[in-house]
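User: I'm curious whether this sequence folds into something compact or stays loose and floppy. Could you predict its structure so I can see for myself?
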Amino acid sequence: MKNLKNGLLLNDESKLQQFLTLRTVGLGLLSFIIVLLFMPLGHALMVLNEKILLNHKLLGAGLIGAIGLFCLIVGLNIQKNQTAMALLGLIAGVLVWTGWIEFSFVWIADKLEVMPYMENGEVATKPEYLIMPSSIGILAAMCLLFIFSDTRCQFYVWIQKILRIKKSIAVQSKQKKPIVITTFIETIMIIWTFYIVLLLVYDGNIAGDRHPLTYITAFGSLAWSFYLIFNLFKISRFDYSIRYAIPTVVIFWNFIEILGRWDLFKEIWIHPFEYKMEIILTTLLLIFLIGLLVYNTKKGNLKIKNSI
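Assistant: Here's the prediction. I'll summarize afterward.
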């Protein structure tokens, strides 16, 4: 296989063993766990904002998004530290999605008095998620922006090759976006895309949560995430590792979300008051791992000699 840029090492089999080392596997695992921990905590943050602030939840949501914007601005001013930029881009994406985007749907659902979708006397889909598929046209337009611009996302690169436009785009695209902006946009786009995927397959008019298509989505996502994890374990730069971990985790999270939909376990992040200790320990673990990462980055312990 040919080399891929940005620290993703996909050489021939003789070189693969050289680059798939304990360091790259450890780096990939650390990136995966850090991004994974953001998933339940993002859900829990949304629930806590709704339950604690009640009628003032939109003000809380505005503040959450504003903190995300602040992280984005800070990231733009530390361009020499790519690790910190990638982390801040991820944090900004999660906070802006949770605060400004998700709660914009909450606001409209409340305004239009949309009722939740009920199953067996329990809320299966909250009102804000029932109206979220209305954004599919905007999502498609955003995807076109990436398809027709210079990108390193392998999915969009694949589409560009099919359309035979990659070379033309590469010639015209010279200016690179800061890593913090790229990570921020990638986080929002990927979360948004797979929210729509899940909501569409849950829709009884399209499939339903027990439909074969939902099973295909669940186990297809699991298989796809295993493939991405294998590639993640060959990345030698943390800034690219964290970016690659975002789609890896979100696709893996599809499987977790569907298992929760099937009531195979209780989603503790939806009930943060019942599982305070678990949420607190998850938060402390995330802070510890990020601190460990920052410390090792400053010490130069994450530098791998054979990186591209």
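Summary: The first strand starts at residue 117 and ends at 119. Confidence is low (pLDDT under 50) at residues 1-18, 304-308.
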